[in-house]
Each structure stands twice: as C-alpha cells, then as structure tokens.
From TrEMBL:
A Pfam family the protein falls into: MoCoBD_1
Record-level Gene Ontology MF annotations: oxidoreductase activity
Ranges where the Aldehyde oxidase/xanthine dehydrogenase a/b hammerhead domain occurs: 237-325
Entry protein name: Molybdopterin-dependent oxidoreductase
Domain of life: Bacteria
Length: 749
C-alpha cells in the first residue's frame, strides 16, 4: 500500500507539473541563445536580424533551399516589417538554436479532420506546438517554411524596427511615435534622418519591446509582389554551390558499394588488389555506422585521391554478399499482403460521419480498387556528403533538409558531442523528402573517421541512388459508395493499406519506435472537403521491410489519385458532369468551390480530339483544382495543358507560387505516366533514368496558374500541385477512351 501510495502521488505530481507547463506561454522564437553569424561590424538585434554600419541587413536563413524559393520568400517577411529593400538584405546560415525549429511541420502531423473544432484538437495542437518549440528540430519539409515562419520572421523584423526607432528617438530627444521608417532609415517630421547602420549599435543595447504591431495586408509593399528570385543568377552562370561542389583543401573521394538485396550484408571481399590501384588510399566497411537506420544497406567504400579512381576500384572489389532474409521479396508478394490485410483487418478509422450502414439503402452502389507503386525520389543531384573528422570535431558540407538530424547522426557516428559538429549547408539539387534522411551523412562520417583527418566526399552513382532510396510506399485502396434514388452521393466507405512512413522515419532519425495511426498514410482521404452524409475512412498499417520515406506530397500523392478518380466514377454513375457533381458536394465549402470554378473557367473548352479531366484536392493547407487537357495517340497519353487554380492564403511571392505549380505538375506527371519502382528477388529492379524515366522537355505541358486572392495566413505551396495531376489526367483519359485506369502509372490496355 505504501508503494502504491508513493507511485500514485508521483503520478499526480507529474500530472500537475504537466498541466502547469501546458498553460504556460510557449517558448518565444525571436531571441536565440546561439550567436547570429555576423561580419563587417554588424550587430545582432535579435536571433534573426543583424545590421551592419554600411546599412546591410543580415537575416538568418533557417530553411534549406532546394528550388522552392525560400532564399527569396523568407527574407521578404523580414524586409517587409523592417522597411528595407530586399536588395539590402544579406543571408547567413542560421546557427543551431531552438528558435529555428519547425513548429508547423510537427503540429500539422496531428491526425485531426480539418473541420474538427473540438477542445480535444485545440488542446492537442497547443501542447504539441509547445513540445515542438522545446525540441527545436530544424527541418525543411511538409511545405511548411512560409507557414511556420510567417509570424516569427515578421515579428523579428518588426522588433528590430521598433528598436531602431527607439534609438533614433532617444538620440533626437523626440517621442518614438513621431518617427517613421522607410528604405532602411528612420525619419522624423523635422527632417532628421538616420540610417539603420548608424543606429544599430545603440539599438542593440536596448531592451526589446514585449510586443510589436505587425503590418496589415493593406500596408504590405513587398509581400504580395513577384520579387525576382535571389538564387537565379548563380544557378544560370554556374557559380551556385551545391553539396557536390564542396572542395575543402586536401579532400579525398569515396565511392560506395551497398548490399543489393534488402537486408543484405557484406560477405567477403579482397582489398589487396584494390589497394594497389592508382590513387587508392583505403577500403572502409561502414556497415556498423548505419545500425538503427531502417532499411539502410550495409556496404564498403573505397577512398582515393580522385573520384574516378575510387569508382574503378570499388568496381574491382569483388564483393560477395549475404542476401539476408528477404531474398525472395517481390512487388507481387507485397501487394498480395496488402490485399490480405484489407480482407482481414478493419484498420484505424481516421474519420467517420453519419451511419455507414446507409450504404445498404443505396439505389446504386459502386465498388473499386486502386493501387499505386513504390516511387524513388530521383533528385537531379545524387546523394553526396563531404565530411571531416579531426581533433574531436566534425565538419560537414552537405545538402540537407534536416540540419538537426544531420548534426545528431554525425555526432553519434564520430563519438563527439553535437556542439562539436559544424554544419555547412549547401544548395540542394532537389530534395523532395529524400534529403530529410541522414543515411548518406552517417556513411560519410564513418568513412571520414578512418581517413586521418582528411575531408572525404562521398558521391553515390545514379544506380546507388535509385536502388538504395527510401521509397514512397506501395498502397492499395478500396472504395464502396452509394447513390440515392435522385443520384445524390449518399454514403462513402474507403479503406486503404500501406506502410507507415512516420513509424520508420522516427525510428531512423530519432530512435523512437513508431506506434499508432500515421496521418501520412490516410491524408488526402480522411480530410476531404466533400459533404457526404455518411462516410467512413480507414487505414491499415502494414509493416514494411522496404525502407519507405517522405516523397513530395507524401500520402496525398497517391490518395488524391484514389479519391478524385473514384469521385469521377460516382459522377459517371449518377449521370452527371464531374464538375457539376463536385459542385453539389461543396455547398458549405465556398473556398473550395471558388477554386474549382476558377480552374474550370480558365481552361475553357477542349479542342477537337482532346478532353478535360478535373481534380480538386487540399494538401498542406492549400486548396488546388486542376484541369488537364489530354489526348490519346496510339495508346500513348499526351498531356497538352494543365490549368491550376490555387488558394494558399496570402501569396507572399506570386511568381514563386507559379513556379512551384509548374514544378509540381511536371513532377507529378513524371510519376503519373512513368514512375514505378518494382522489387524482384529482394532487389530494386530499376537503376537509372532509362528504366525510371522522368518527364522530358518535349513532354511537358503548358501550365496556367490562377492564384486566388486571400487574406488568410499563407499555407504550403511546395507540394500541393503534385497530387491532383494523376487523377485529372486519368479522368480525361476515361472521357476519351472509356477506360477507367485504377493503377499508377497510367497505362492504356
């Protein structure tokens, strides 16, 4: 009894502490503990903004640039509130500090329906957002950069502006309320004027205001403009530095060979002949460094003075591999398992409304099964990392979406503290979720650890990249829906099966075992806007020996295809035009309806021999409607034009939004028409762009983008244009051929 009393008292105390912590204000995100990197006499006014005597404003860049435009859009937020021209702003890589952690990415992962306004949801979001601030994990993903930093970076700019005004007011001995700012200067009605550079030193010594007033949308001068991208010129003239361009002094090169079979290990090899080859320094077995990395392949590396020397020597290693327990794994077997699990398991119900039993009362019932394959990321810049381990320190030159995880894995592999890891983040030649992972970083650090302090650059071949990816999961979905006697959609039952990405990702990168429902598996299905009286959406998590990861737009990428294709099936069953049918399901969703109408109005009528297919989908907070103009020639699907209307809240930079739409359409079409990773004998069959093609320039459609005016906070745009492409094309193909394509990639019989 005494032990029970002690335990219960302890739990009660812990609960009281938790409740007390839960109601406390969340951790602020303006002032950091780590020093903001500055030079040329600049002084930091907070964790985001520093001002130099020459009036240059340095802004901390806390997100990785992988083509989505954050090097331009994020400093626009600070420049707007600080009242400085964007041309006056320089960027510095943000140091490791919790204020730069991505809060929105973590809170967006909660499995709540968008229309759930319950106290449970509000409480969960409050607590998780506080936890996210305490963790301070810096990640670029989930189309969250603008959404997450919309307030912190504006508040940082406004706070700095307030300090500069106060410094000028004290110097001039006038009330601060009589001062205003313009183009990097503080001005007074008397004609006095001072540059930020002249005021910065005094401002840095003042106490920041407890609160600041942010501009209203009507006061924006920079936000909402298509400011030219800051990274364009360097990418055109070749001066842009990506991870693969790192060249520290004395650098060596490493080529790797990884077990070809899932779960395979190194058997035997003969390094002696290889070590006699020109330029070869050593052979390293790095397998132990990847322990705990789900699906990571054991293997060897050859280190040489030049990359081609390392490649040739790696080819000559003569490795004999142990296949491991999954040598008979195949795509067919994986799909059979998913089907069996759907037959036997109810899965987790993500959303239910009304009474699904009403299906039995339907005047017409439609059933369908859809499937999607594994997909590789296929970034144009293959995986690479340059690492140096010397004097108890680690230095990394790398393109990464996960600075926090990169530092953590480097410290673990090298046996040092995270504070002893220096990270130099380069431009990313494509990320798409692949560079959220740190397997290639662990590999590089393990190899560099054996190289006597020399920096080593590990470069994967395209075949390494294609066959050792963390893939978008294969997925299977079943639908049953019914119409009433008037042709109205009465009931909708959707069950899907696939691997839980979040479970694997947490285990790989945080050492935390995944458990419970994974929102990524059912997103795009359970959170649809359609007003169906009786609905149920379930998902069955199926453990996967294949490594799976976040692929651009994640679960939305295939669930949008499943859902929007089946909506078209129901429209056909009701004898209605697909657009008219959708409009009838959106009476309480005016924003979705407006986006749908905008896309349809823009596209007009299809030319002879072509058809229009439509899809409407919401992902990462942005509502997207797409109309694909398609023709079919000799069983080849040709996409001529895609019209895309988007409501992503306030458009910070409309030009970048249009670019992301175009990028998303091309990326999504590559997968819709050609993308497929298959498994045979425990190995990935595809190895390069010859058997895993991507859309070529002559195949790319004309893309028209319509950006809806909005005063809502900005939402994600890096990924939302990807999901609607496949169903829009498939729905157009049905109009042309009468064939309902229910499997990706889309292929006509």
């Amino acid at each position: 009894m005494r032990r029970r009393t002690f335990l219960l008292s302890g739990l009660a105390t812990a609960g009281a502490v938790l409740v007390g912590w839960g109601v406390m204000p969340p951790r602020q995100r303006i002032r950091g503990k780590a020093a903001l990197p500055v030079s040329q006499g600049a002084v930091a006014l907070n964790g985001w903004v520093a001002v130099a005597p020459d009036n240059t404003v340095t802004v901390a860049m806390a997100r990785s640039e992988m083509g989505q435009g954050v090097l331009t859009a994020l400093p626009m937020l600070v420049a707007e509130e600080l009242d400085v021209p964007l041309s006056q702003v320089a960027l510095a890589q943000a140091p490791a500090d919790k204020i730069y952690g991505n809060v929105a990415l973590i809170t967006d992962g909660l499995p709540f329906h968008p229309e759930d306004d319950s106290r449970t949801r509000r409480g969960a979001e409050w607590i998780i957002s506080k936890v996210a601030r305490e963790l301070g994990i810096n990640i670029t993903g989930g189309s969250s950069s603008i959404k997450d930093l919309w307030l912190p970076m504006r508040e940082a700019g406004a706070t700095a502006r307030a300090l500069l005004i106060e410094a000028a007011a004290r110097n001039w001995k006038v009330p601060a309320t009589e001062c205003r700012t313009e183009d990097g200067h503080v001005l007074h009605a008397s004609g006095k004027k001072a540059s930020y550079g002249d005021l910065a030193q005094a401002a840095a010594g003042m106490t920041p205001p407890s609160s600041v007033r942010l501009k209203t949308p009507g006061q924006f001068r920079l936000i909402g403009s298509s400011a030219p991208r800051r990274d364009t010129a360097s990418k055109v003239n070749g001066s842009a530095v990506f991870g693969i361009d790192a060249r520290p002094q004395g650098m060596l090169y490493a080529a790797v060979r990884m077990a070809p079979t899932i779960g395979g290990t190194v058997g035997s090899f003969d390094p002696q002949a290889v070590l006699k080859m020109p330029g070869v320094q050593r052979v390293v077995d790095y397998s132990a460094a990847l322990e705990g990395q789900t699906g990571a392949r054991a293997g060897l590396a050859v280190v040489a003075q030049h990359y081609w020397q390392a490649r040739q020597a790696a080819d000559a290693l003569g490795i004999k591999w142990h296949d491991g327990p999954h040598a008979k794994l195949s795509s067919d077997a994986i799909l059979r398992e998913l089907a069996q699990r759907l037959d036997s398991d109810a899965g987790h119900t993500f959303h239910a409304a009304g009474d699904i039993g009403k299906l039995d009362e339907a005047a017409k019932t439609v059933r369908a099964e859809y499937r999607a394959p594994y997909l590789a990321h296929a970034t144009m810049e293959p995986m690479n990392c340059t690492a140096q381990v010397a004097g108890g320190k680690v230095r990394l030159w790398v393109s990464t979406q996960s600075p926090s995880f990169a530092i953590g894995v480097a410290a673990r592999v090298a046996g040092v503290q995270p504070a002893d890891v220096e990270l130099d983040i380069k431009l990313l030649g494509g990320g798409f979720g692949r560079r959220l992972e740190v397997d290639f970083i662990a590999q590089a650090v393990a190899i560099a650890k054996e190289c006597g302090g020399a920096p080593v650059q590990v470069i994967w071949t395209r075949e390494d990249d294609m066959r050792h990816d963390v893939y978008r999961p294969v997925a299977l979905a079943r639908f049953t829906a019914g119409l009433d006697g008037a042709g109205n959609l009465l009931a909708w039952d959707n069950q899907s099966a696939g691997a839980a990405i979040g479970h694997q990702f947490l285990k790989r990168n945080m050492g935390v075992p995944g458990a419970g429902p994974d929102r990524n598996s059912a997103e795009g299905e359970f959170d649809m806007p359609y007003e169906i009286p009786h609905q149920r959406i379930r998902h069955v998590n199926v453990e996967s020996v294949m490594p799976v990861g976040y692929w651009r737009s994640v679960g939305h990428s295939h669930n949008a295809f499943f859902k929007e294709s089946f909506v078209d099936e129901m429209a056909h069953a009701a004898g209605l035009d697909p657009v008219v049918f959708r409009r009838g399901l959106l009476h309480r969703h005016p924003r979705h309806l407006a986006v749908l109408n905008a896309a349809v109005d823009k596209v007009g009528q299809p030319p002879p021999g072509r058809a229009h297919g439509v899809a409407l989908h919401q992902a990462f907070g942005a509502i997207v409607a797409q109309v694909a103009e398609v023709s079919v020639m000799d069983k080849e699907i040709v996409v001529h034009r895609v019209v895309c209307a988007v409501d992503c809240g306030i458009a910070v930079n409309p030009g970048i939004i249009a670019q992301q739409v175009e990028s998303g359409v091309v990326f999504g079409l590559s997968a819709a028409l050609m993308g497929e990773i298959t498994i045979a004998n425990g190995q990935v069959a595809q190895g390069n762009f010859g058997d895993y093609p991507v859309l070529r320039m002559n195949q790319a459609p004309k893309v028209d983008t319509v950006i809806m005016l909005s005063a809502e906070p900005p939402q994600g745009m890096g990924e939302p244009a990807v999901p609607p492409v496949a169903p829009a094309v498939a729905n157009a193909v049905f109009k042309l051929t009468g064939q309902r394509l229910r499997s990706l990639p889309l292929k006509l019989a």
